[in-house]
Amino acid sequence: MHLNSLPFFLFLIGGIFCQYDYDPVGYYPSEPDYGYAHPMYGPSTALCAPECNCPVTYPSAMYCDDLKLKSLPIIPSGIKYLYVRNNMIEGIEDNAFNNVTDLEWLILDNNHLENSKIKGKVFAKLKSLKKLHMNYNNLTEVVGPLPNTMDDLQITHNKISKINPNTLEGLVNLTVVQLQHNQLTEDSLSGVFKGLNSLLYLDLSYNKLSKLPRGLPPNILMLYLDNNQITNIPDEYFQGFKALQFLRLSHNKLTNSGIPSNVFNISTLVELDLSYNQLKSIPTVNEHLENYYLQVNQINKFPVSSFCKVVGALAYSRVRHLRLDANNLTRADLPQEMYNCLRMAADISLE
Q1: Which domain covers residue 67, as residue numbers?
Q2: 179 lies in a domain?
Q3: Which run of H or of E encompasses 339?
Q4: Residues 85-111: b if buried by 16+ CB within 10 A, e if exposed
Q5: Would residue 50 count as lying in a domain?
Q6: Rounded mean pLDDT of the chain?
Q7: β-pairing, 105-107 with 81-83?
Q8: Residues 35, 21, 13, 147, CA torsion sign
Q9: What 3-state class would DSSP assign to 3?
Q10: Minimal CA–CA distance to 70: which of 43, 49, 40, 92?
Q11: What is the protein's major site of localization (predicted)?
Q12: Is residue 293 very low, low, confident or very high in pLDDT (cuts 50, 70, 90)?
């Protein structure tokens, strides 16, 4: 067992690459990288908008990035992957996708899109659409209606404060929803995710939540709620989740009085992040938890019962990485029986 080390954890799931990079001060969660194909720009195919590039080696993709466009180009039939990033587009006309109703990916990051300038039901026409990315725009609501073929919706770094409860209705294939860096409150999320039983990855970090949202689908695998204003967790809030493995609640306003005693006793949970809160003792977790982040709280005691109800030959915690740095604990505060309980631990950080 190595004290005072800095753990580094990577996981790869469902084509999403998520990473925590830790430094001595804190951590900075990076944006997921979907590994887009960036072809070597060479000769473009004949069926391409003249200002864009449709590589001969990847003819179903059209790249219109960094062109200072103020409107979408004419999209020829046959294009299935459209990249129009880093432009100046404010709106989308109702007929914009008439030639490409079988478009599968639409990537519109870093533009000036506004809800009032997106006409009609323009996205509903895209009967094969799987990925819609509209990060870094000026949207105040989640766009819709959307086709039920969608599996990946990203609208981060906008000004979204409202989601119509019907906007995501019927999107039974939706697996990924990223809404971080917006202005969402718990009231604006009421009923929004109902029926999304394929949803595995939900990121609501960097919003204005003061309470945990109700009505989340039971099959969520990764739930990120960090950097909000959450003060407490309702009793049995997580009991309806069947597969939750990764839970982030860092950078909130949680205190021990706002955390019921067994609320994190979740047998499926692999990683729990409660760092940067106002905790004075260690919340109890299930013995199957592997990564537990508690740095930068006010913790001043180390009860072994937080990790092990009993300790024995087959009864012990599976925690491998435990961060307790920037609390009120020293190595002398660690009870001797901790080492038998945490026999799997590779990293316990105190400073």
Answers
A1: 37-90+100-125
A2: no
A3: helix 338-341
A4: bebebbbbeeebbeebeebbbbbbbbb
A5: yes
A6: 88
A7: parallel
A8: negative
A9: strand
A10: 92
A11: secreted
A12: very high
Token representation of residue 315: 């009864």
Using CA atoms, how far apart are residues 120 and 132, in angstroms rounded to an integer? 17
- Number of domains within the chain: 1
Phi, psi of 341, deg, nearest 5: -65, -45
Among candidate residues 142, 138, 143, the one with its CA nearest the CA of residue 157: 138
User: How long is the chain?
Assistant: 351
**Number of Cβ within a 10 Å radius of residue 313:** 5
Q: What is the DSSP letter of 31?
A: P
- 76 within some domain: yes
- The structure tokens listed for 106 are 């639409």
State the residue for tokens 């009993």.
Answer: 310
Token couple for 37: 């194909």
Q: Once rounded to an integer, what is the mean pLDDT over residues 37-41?
A: 50
Percent of the chain with pLDDT over 70: 88
DSSP state of 347: E
Structure tokens at 152: 């990946």
Q: What is the pLDDT of residue 209?
A: 98
Cα 160 to Cα 107, 184, 188, 208: the distances in Å are: 18, 6, 10, 11
Do the domain assignments include residue 276? no
pLDDT value, residue 44 = 73
Q: Choose among 206, 247, 239: nearest CA to 223.
A: 247
